[in-house]
Amino acid sequence: MNAAAPRRHFASDNYAGICPEAWAALADANTDHAPGYGDDAWTQKATDLIRELFETHCEVFFVFNGTAANSLALASMCQSYHSILCHETAHIEVDECGAPEFFSNGTKVLLMSGANGKVDTAEIERMVKKRTDIHYPKPRAISLTQATELGTVYSPDELKAIWAKAKAHGLKMHMDGARFANAVAALGCAPKEITWQAGVDVLCFGGTKNGIPVGEAVVFFDRELAREFDYRCKQAGQLASKMRFISAPWVGMLKDGIWLKHAAHANAMAALLEEKIRALPEVKFMFPRQANAVFAELPRRAIDGLKAKGWKFYTFIGQGGCRLMCAWDTQPADVEAFAADLRVLVGG
Ligand SMILES: Cc1ncc(COP(=O)(O)O)c(C=O)c1O
Question: What is the pLDDT of residue 320?
């Protein structure tokens, strides 16, 4: 391996490894025997900690990844003749290979526009009223991503405005929280303020991007929707027999606010990156940086030059441009090195 090649990248927060606290909890769980399929003390503890965190008696299930979490959660809200409204850049639309439709036996995903990756309330109204006849799939749920695919964050007030529309039209609210921790860290609010107190019925609470090895929590604030969700998980191949190795890392993360500390760090690294490249010629930011991602338009020669130096980052995620994503383990030196390479390439 080239010693000068970057060791950490800006491609995705899932490039990062397992954080020490999750790793330690995994090791602790790796002693003696424990019951399978979630009937173990670690899963109980993780569930209790999630209930404590959200300050409510929610139902909690652990699945292997975000696609499964989103798809199964949405399937629990919809019949096959329903539709799900989401932003046109939503992961459920562009990055889940049709899994939400597949697991719901055909519920149609309908797309809405909105600035900076956020759903526009007027668009909800337009979509719901566009057709109300029996020939069109009946809107049943709104899916929001928090933080969004474009690195922005819905405020509690924005969520409440969407909730008002949802209530008016009998829509359930799903939240894809793959980067929920980054959103909470950015807003500095209590988790309940941007979930059940803002109308969210089901949250897919992401852990993988924040230092957990594998596994997301599906959190039902509307407990009625959780009925028979265990069967849905099992049928979809999402019931881990050694569940404690999915749930134990959550215990390590949720104790002492570690989840928030890591997310705040990732956000701070993105803020630093933004600051370091802001003044460089030909660098244009595409969206407000609010969580752990910076989206920037860079000249082609700079993109090619950075890639030649070994930097990995996506240029096709979101809406074009470069997505520079920071993780729980991104170091200021990584940001400095990237910015220095970019500076040379653009002649700043
Ligand atoms: C917004 C969003 N939702 C969900 C996911 C989870 O996807 P996966 O199925 O890869 O765990 C991701 C991962 O990239 C994401 O960015």
Answer: 61
Question: How much distance in Å is there from the Cα of 179 to the middle of ligand 1?
Answer: 9
Ranges of residues in the chain with a pLDDT under 50 are 1
Model confidence over 47-77: pLDDT tens digits?
A: 999 999 999 999 999 999 999 999 999 999 9
pLDDT computed for residue 316 by the predictor? 77
Q: Helices marked H in the chain — which ranges?
A: 20-29, 41-54, 66-77, 91-94, 99-103, 121-130, 156-168, 180-187, 229-235, 244-254, 258-278, 300-308, 332-346
DSSP lists the bridge partners of residue 84 as 109, 141
What is residue 26's three-state secondary structure? helix
**Ligand 1, pocket residues at CB < 6 Å:** 65-67, 91, 145, 149, 176, 178, 208
Among the listed residues 257, 340, 295, 217, the one whose alpha carbon sits nearest the alpha carbon of residue 10: 295
Alpha carbon nearest to ligand 1 atom 7, residue: 66
What pLDDT is attached to residue 280? 97
pLDDT for residue 3: 56
Ligand 1 atom nearest the C-alpha of 68 is 9
Pocket test for ligand 1, best of 14, 65, 72, 91 (most atoms within 8 A of CB): 91
**Among candidates 226, 249, 283, which has minimal Cα distance to 75?**
226
Contacts of residue 92, Cβ cutoff 8 Å, sequence gap at least 6: 70, 71, 74, 84, 86, 99, 100, 109, 143, 176
For a pocket test of ligand 1, which of 13, 67, 145, 218 has the largest count of ligand atoms closer than 8 A to its C-beta? 67
Which sign, positive or negative, has the C-alpha torsion 287, 290, 293, 299?
positive
